[in-house]
Amino acid sequence: MMKRLLTRGLMGLMGLMGLMGTVQAQGPRLPLSAGATASVITCGPGDDFYLAFGHSAIRITDTANGIDYAYNYGTFDFDTPHFYWNFARGMLDYCLSRTPFDRFTATYAFEGRAMWEQRLELTQQEVNNLYLMLEWNYMPENRFYRYDFFRDNCATRVRDMVESACGKRRVDCGEWESESYRDMVHRSTAGGCLEWWTLGVDLLLGLPADHRVDSREAMFHPLAMQQLYATATRGGAPLVAESRTLLEDHREPLRRSFPPVAAFALLLTAVAVMTVGAGRFGIPKGVLRWTDRILFGVAGVAGLFLCFMWFGTDHWCTRWNLNLLWLSPLLVLIAIRLERSPRWALWLQEGCFAVAAVWVLWCGLSVAIIPIILTLALRVAGRMR
Question: How far is the C-alpha of 261 from the C-alpha of 366, rounded, in Å?
Fold first, then answer.
């Protein structure tokens, strides 16, 4: 149970879109028959954060040769040595799996998740080319790749394979609305049931996540790729020959969690009452002292963690994280020194709080961050007396 909880928590931090797949040993049969088809499969979101973005796969069907496979680039192995450490450092390898399509579908049917198929308008040679590339990728020495949530995941691998199969006849997906990586993550976690995960993502992601994506970059998101492929053309002709729904969404509605903005607003209220009424209500100074040590200590350690994610990992999207303005390692010093903290350190931290609040509001980060900043700023100001 503990391993399962740790796994769900770690996967949630970066929104991993993987699905454990099964590997088949049967080799390719070529050439495929004239009736062979290739499709992009899009799976709807699930109930957990790391499933909130959906999933993508490629389906190759050739009834004459008994072939009906789902090629899934979202497979990972929990038994990989140093799995969690590799995940935290951005050094986790995913791999391609090949699964009979009925077994692949059964997984999503059991979870009550939707599934759609977009059959591609490819020539027989292009279908054969796609099949060959997938089989080559499936070889043990080729199936592993270094996972990157935004740039190299289960959806972008599907995109790259389709583009390679199309060759010189370039796929035109048109323009994408003005959104950043962060905006697309927010849109996937909207609705009130994943607000705590949204807060966690906003704490982890740095300025690179605010890059405005084009249509190709937006395809890191399976549902965005499905939307773009629906109107994509190739040489003036539609890329998708037929679209159909394979599974309807039958999930139970998620229960709304207690909003983080409300939780931290209550914390702010409690700390404000303690600060203003310390003398009036006779609250011992020791209570405020330990409150400050806990608040500053937790915030400072969180800042050290963000420094590790910036400088100690391969996660490009956690660099230049301006949350370090308010989750500052300087707070560790203040937590230790308290009344003996240098005045310059207190004033510097207060200035950082002000800049951070403006940045959070300007960039549309989780509003739950604002009451946290105000709570910390109030207590740092209390140490200036």
Answer: 8
Number of other residues whose CB lies within 10 A of the CB of residue 176:
18
- Residue 362: partners with Cβ closer than 8 Å, 6 or more residues away: none
What's the length of the chain?
385
Burial class, 295, CB count within 10 angstroms (exposed 0-12 / middle 13-18 / buried 19+): buried
Please report, as a single letter, which amino acid is at residue 128.
N
User: Rounded to 5 degrees, what are φ and ψ at 258?
Assistant: -65, 125
Phi, psi angles (nearest 5°) of residue 246: -95, -35
Spatial strand order in the sheet of 171-172:
171-172, 233-234, 237-238
Angular region, 35: left φ>0, alpha ψ -120 to 50, beta rest: alpha
Tell me the pTM.
0.85
Instruction: Indicate the pLDDT class of residue 193, thresholds 50, 70 and 90.
Output: low
pLDDT at 112 over 50: yes
pLDDT, residue 279, reads 64
- How many C-beta neighbours within 10 Å does residue 359 have? 16
Closest C-alpha to 316, from 141, 90, 21: 90
Q: How far apart are CA 173 and CA 214, in angstroms?
A: 10
Q: How many CB atoms lie within 10 A of CB 57?
A: 28
pLDDT, tens only, 157-184: 999 999 999 887 889 998 898 899 999 9
Locate all alpha helices (DSSP H) within 277-342, ordered by sequence: 285-311, 330-337
* Residue-range domains of the chain with CATH: 2-176+213-247 (3.90.1720), 260-382 (no CATH)
List helix spans (H) across the chain. 2-14, 83-88, 101-111, 124-138, 154-166, 181-188, 195-204, 215-218, 222-231, 260-276, 285-311, 330-337, 343-363, 369-382
